[in-house]
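Review form for a predicted model. The reviewer records the input and the model, then writes brief findings.
Reviewer: anonymous (R2)
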Amino acid sequence: MINNDVLRSIRYMLDLSDNKVVEIARLADPAFPIDKDDVHAFLLKEDEPGYAMCSDDVLAHVLDGLIVHRRGRDEGLPLRPVEKRISNNVVLKKLRVAFELKDSDMHQVFADAGFPVSRPELSALFRQPGHKNFRKCGDQLLRNFLKGLTLRVRGA
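Model under review:
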């Protein structure tokens, strides 16, 4: 899925302002160079003037910052290094951690979106890429997860 679409979905889901998105991204790394204008450019549609592609680095900072924002930071541990490459599986994992979702919650989120997922399918999404039962998370699956999570957070 396009990083800009993921960022748009998260922003809508949590009803965040551009400034709040910048604050959240900086929770992962206070020195991260992002400002309100960058976020605004990421949220524009592709055919609008001023549109900019959201890089993996930016999305990784936002997702890691979202985890800190929602769950808090463990002061006893150093900052975790930010992911270099963001895949749909990584987005799914980070959102699962940020919203503290258990397997049953994940199944409910998918069911709420009208896209039920079986237990083996769900567990395959969270396996290591080299594992024989690993399954890549497709765009449709992530889109439905974001839709179901939005329904859960914002209400119907």
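Findings: Residues 56-71 form the longest helix (16 residues).
Further findings: The chain has a mean pLDDT of 92.
Recommendation: see findings above.
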